[in-house]
């Protein structure tokens, strides 16, 4: 009996040891996976670093590219396009004007009543319409017919006091936020689509002509009197209320910048010099690239798999269309190489662009003790339930790294414009502050991005110069600005003046 008892004890002890060994191995394996996840996080943080020295290099490179783009056609990745806007709004504009703002996955139609200097913008109404994904890769006729139909529906809702003057055609400012080579204030050919659009039969065509044909097909009696980029529209809207706006930046689905250039700085190859001594330049800065940009393996892969590889590198690092996708790609690597969400990679996590920047923003701003917003987004968007608190904290860290890099690089780009205009140094006798008008959903709704960008710009400028530069939100600047430019380029303007 004693031998049997001893044997049983030995067997039991062996079983306990074996079970303990399994637990130890599991813990070691789990620890190893977590260490790998942390190594991926650390590498991301290091690759995305934006110290002041690097940001100043990016700013200097932006300034150099601006000079090169102005000096010769094709001399820079920056298009530096002449906007033909050399008479920005003064506040005297009056009457009823429409605007169409096409800049991303949505477009807006606006109706604006202007009352001159005394009354300003008397009334404005708008409607926002989503563009079906299939139209973003369809034909130009399908896209512009869809837009014209929405415009016709909106015109039909004109209320009392919101009609054009008798015997006058309705006039429209068309904000078209894609690279266009303009040939006049109301005409321009499309260079290429961005922001997920790919409609090949429009490239090289006059976008105003395409819209005009669509409006005729849909029975809309309206004339396009101004074709502008969203950034040019934002600049115009800013100038309407403040005369000291020197530049405008859009930080939304995509990104761009425009600024007011002196006529003397524009080479003759661009054509006749502006009458007013200044001209708005549409930079198309989303296409900026430099060896100083902190690119990661995720940026390179995203670019290679995009509809426009090798193009819009800066935009892919800082704009709202891509930030959430960057976070997804990092999480996917963690899931594949470190079993971050368990032994299998969640299927939805493999879907490109499933994690949108608004989702990323919501997770980044989560202040609840258990990060319940992060948990909710993981479950609802990516199909990942039951995550631990330490996993959620890592995800917030990833959001912070990607957003901070984008915000700091945005600030560096703005500094580049300020340097080009010579506003980075104090000038004797110059007391007026210079305003940078900002618009776009990313800037407006992603508070941590906005705060980081503004703080970074102040740090780059230094206290003295920072006091002379004001970053101001120009809400709906691109839409209102387009209506204002339609007014300042009205076909009836000379008749009114005479």
How does this structure look, described?
This protein is an alpha/beta fold and 498 residues long. It has a domain at 82-241 and 475-489: ATPase, nucleotide binding domain (Nucleotidyltransferase, domain 5, 2-Layer Sandwich), CATH 3.30.420. The chain is built from 17 helices and 13 strands. The strands form three sheets. It has a six-stranded mixed β-sheet. The protein has a five-stranded mixed β-sheet with strand order 4-3-2-5-8. A hairpin with a 3-residue loop joins strand 2 (94-102) and strand 3 (106-115). Helix 1 (2-47) runs antiparallel to helix 9 (320-338) and helix 10 crosses helix 12. The longest helix has 46 residues, at 2-47. The N and C termini lie far apart (123 Å). Mean pLDDT is 89; it is low at 17-24.
- The radius of gyration computed from the alpha-carbon positions, rounded to a whole number of angstroms, is 27 Å
CATH third-level topology of the domain at 82-241 and 475-489 = Nucleotidyltransferase, domain 5
The CATH class of the domain at 82-241 and 475-489 is identified as Alpha Beta
In CATH, the homologous superfamily of the domain at 82-241 and 475-489 goes by the name ATPase, nucleotide binding domain
Oligomer: single chain
**What form results from the Cα inertia axes?**
globular
Structural class label = alpha/beta
Beta-strand proportion: 15-25%
In the CATH hierarchy, what is the architecture of the domain at 82-241 and 475-489 at level 2? 2-Layer Sandwich
What is the helix content?
Answer: 40-55%
